[in-house]
Amino acid sequence: MKEIFVLAEHRRGELRDITFELLSLGRKLAEKLDGNLVSAVLGFGVKDFTDKVARYAEQVLVVEDEKLKEFNSEAYQKVLTNILEERKPFLILLGHTSYGMELAPSLSTALNIPLTTDCIGLDFKDGKLQVIRQMYGGKVNAEVSFSEAESYMVTVRSGAFPVEEPKITSGKIIVVPSHLTEEDLAPKRFVEYIEEAKGEVDITSADIIVSVGRGIKDAKNIPLVEGLAKALGGVLASTRPIVDKGWLPKDRQVGLSGKTVKPKLYIAVGVSGSFQHLAGIKGSGILIAINKDPKAPIFRVADYGIVDDLFKVVPVLKEKIIELKQKI
Fold first, then answer.
1. Helix, coil or strand: residue 132
2. Are 154 and 131 in contact (CB under 8 A)?
3. Domain 203-327 class?
4. How many CB atoms lie within 10 A of CB 80?
5. Strand, helix or coil at 3?
6. Residues 104 and 115: beta-carbon distance below 8 Å
């Protein structure tokens, strides 16, 4: 029976969203193969994590060691190499995160298996694994196939796949010894965790986002769109040109060079829809576009579109929303 293997990622006492995205994807792939989903949790004091992961996977491999309390790619590689050499899963899924990007290349080399990074699509065709990854800054979606191998490794872009409800009450938890020594941690050592300075809002966790693009014309017009976001109970985001002009801070930027978001509702106001921006909203729920150009690329992916001047549409939408909320 073929096995899909997912590495759970956690940081500072919390499982990262990418873990549940990978588990949901892994579940779908395992069902297509009529195989099993297995996940590994490495760390120290991770019982709460294993219980959550066990709702998705048939088996959860737990490696508890104080040397794994903080992420260290050298230590993770040594532990995972032993596990994966023994289990030989068909597919290994890691997040295309700072953890995954540091770990995957050396791990795939140690295991001598093929690796493809930053994937936004995975499927099987004629029983063979094929993935989709973007090239040339997102201008091209390339369908990639692999040379024949016993196992394959893939890193998956955050937000590329939705999180789905778990289907397992509780998978089997298996404790695996780490056998790590102090020498195994060299030459890398964890010194301290420095968290990025947070802005006023975290757009990556917002359920409702109203994003503004070049169609806003001037910085003095941004409060108009921000008013719509507040009326909806959402947050304001933007495309890169708005940030480059200094009209909004960098932490509000959505896209390849900004942040990847996956709100339940995304309203693009005066956003043309460049491929760089669309790459950052792939995991969004409902997408509404407001643009006076009927040929704007954003309309190709929008669920609903309003072809009109945003300066006419936004005030009306805002007032209508306020009116409806008052009736509730």
1. strand
2. yes
3. alpha beta
4. 22
5. strand
6. yes
Q: What is each CA distance from 135 to 22, 96, 139, 261, in whole angstroms?
A: 22, 15, 6, 20
Alpha carbons 111 and 321: distance in angstroms, whole number: 56
Distance CA 280, CA 260 (A): 4
User: Quick one: DSSP state of residue 146?
Assistant: -
Intrachain domains 3-185 and 203-327 with the same fold: yes
Sequence-distant (≥ 6) Cβ neighbours of residue 165 within 8 angstroms: none
C-alpha 295/C-alpha 291 separation (Å) is 9
In this structure, what DSSP letter does residue 250 have? G
Indicate the domain borders of the chain. Answer: 3-185, 203-327
CB atoms within 10 A of CB 116: 22
Domain 3-185 has CATH 3.40.50.620: yes
CA-nearest of 61, 52, 63, 64 to 24 is 52
Global pTM value: 0.80
Torsion angle of the four alpha carbons 89, 69, 74, 158, in this order, in degrees rounded to the nearest 10: 60
The DSSP call for residue 63 is E
pLDDT digits (tens, 9 = 90+) for 177-227: 988 887 777 677 778 777 766 667 889 889 999 999 999 999 999 999 999
Maximum Cα interatomic distance, the chain, rounded to a whole number of Å: 66
Q: Are 80 and 107 in contact (CB under 8 A)?
A: yes
- Strand 208-212, strand 265-269: pairing: parallel
Residue 289 CA to residue 210 CA, distance in Å, equals 10
Rounded Cα–Cα distance for residues 6 and 25 (Å):
10
CA-based angle 55:57:59, to the nearest 5? 115
Distance, CA of 307 to CA of 312 (rounded, Å): 11
Which pLDDT band, with edges at 50, 70 and 90, does 159 fall under? confident
Element of type H or E holding 228: helix 222-232
Sign of CA dihedral 31, 35, 40, 46: positive
- Tokens, residue 265: 């509702």
Q: Are 155 and 98 in contact (CB under 8 A)?
A: no
Question: How far apart, in Å, are the Cα atoms of 278 and each of 192, 202, 211, 266?
Answer: 35, 19, 12, 11
Q: Residue 182 CA to chain centroid, in angstroms?
A: 33
